[in-house]
Structures are given as structure tokens and as C-alpha cells.
Amino acid sequence: xxxxxxxxxxxxxxxxxxxxxxxxxxxxxxxxxxxxxxxxxxxxxxxxxxxxxxxxxxxxxxxxxxxxxxxxxxxxxxxxxxxxxxxxxxxxxxxxxxxxxxxxxxxxxxxxxxxxxxxxxxxxxxxxxxxxxxxxxxxxxxxxxxxxxxxxxxxxxxxxxxxxxxxxxxxxxxxxxxxxxxxxxxxxxxxxxxxxxxxxxxxxxxxxxxxxxxxxxxxxxxxxxxxx
Length: 228
Hints:
Elements: H1 2-20, H2 22-30, H3 36-47, E1 55-59, H4 65-74, E2 76-78, E3 84-86, E4 89-94, E5 105-108, H5 114-128, E6 137-142, H6 152-173, E7 174-185, H7 190-200, E8 201-207, E9 218-226
Parallel strand pairs: 1-4, 1-6, 4-5, 6-7
Antiparallel strand pairs: 2-3, 7-9, 8-9
Helix pairs in contact: 3-4, 6-7
Pfam families: FtsJ (PF01728)
Domain Ribosomal RNA methyltransferase FtsJ: 32-225
InterPro entries: RNA_methyltr_RlmE (IPR050082), RNA_MeTrfase_FtsJ_dom (IPR002877), rRNA-MeTfrase_E (IPR015507), SAM-dependent_MTases_sf (IPR029063)
């Protein structure tokens, strides 16, 4: 009973913090599905990541707030036939279902699976209007995070695994001048994540957005310029 009571107190405290969070209220007012949109916005404004005409892949995109921001940032254009289309390409991939976002391509599946990668390539080919090179992506973003157990060694291994997956995907699909954004947590996995990124990218910057909760250990690594 004691554990259950503590759990209820924690849940209530989290709920109270959530509903009074100014970033949550702002997200609701701006029509974003999550406060995370403002994390990407700050990263973009700081490092100039997003430009109209780009091809962008969002790994682990649920619930879709980053895809929403990317769509707004790229903007739309009306063609000669009067059709409104996105000024660029955004593809979101997640194991979980994601509600549709106008102009954004959402794929449900595991991006490690060959079937999902083939679907991604087909989506890029269709969106870009023809055969595309293997490295056709300008920006890969990943807000993926594992379910944390509270056991540092276990959590570090899970975090490192997700970062490894994102880096491997980026190395295979990014243009040479492309960029990768991944989430990491300060702790056992942080130094390893930085080392891994520096093996593949010329510059790696760490940044904690203001929209991250103060007590959160999360930060984001922004890597640019593929090596080799």
C-alpha cells in the first residue's frame, strides 16, 4: 500500500506540473501535439538546421510535434494547377500510429527493418519526383528515448542503442553536408554518444533547449558534416 500511495503522489505531482507548464499551454495554443516542438524550434534557430526545399526524416516521430514544426518551417507553395504542397519533404517514422499531418509522410514501422527502409525509399522517390540517390536526406532528427528503468547501467545501454541506430541510419542516408539531431541523457551514455558521433561527423554540439524541464537530464547533440 505504501508503494501504491507513493506512486499516486508521483502521478499527481506530474499531472499538476504538466497542466501548469507554460510550454504545454503554449503548445496547446499553437496547435502542437507536444511541448517538444519548441525544443526543435530552439535547436533550429540556434544551428540553422531547416531550410525550404530540404528532405528531412524524423525518427521516432510520435506523437508528431516535430513533424508539425518541420511542416510549418518549410512552408507551402501553390503550383500552377492550384495544388498546395510542402516546400520540401518530411517523412516521419515510428512504431506507434501517428495521426496524419497534412503534407507530411508518416510511416508506421521499425526503421531497422528492410521493409520499412524500402517504404521510406519509395516515399522519398515519389516525393522527390523520380529516382533518388541513397544519400538524399538533408536532416535526420531523433527525439527517441527508451523507457527508463532507474538502473543506470541498463538505461545507459538502452540510450546508447537508440543513438547507435540513429547514427547508423544517418550515415547511410544523409548528404555529406547533412545534419543529425539526437537526444541523449547526461550520465553513463553521454560520453559514449559524443564519441560515436565524432567518429562520423566533423562537428558535434551539445544543447539543452529551454523547453526541456529543468530537472530533466536530457540534452540534444547536433552533428554536422559527414566524415568520409
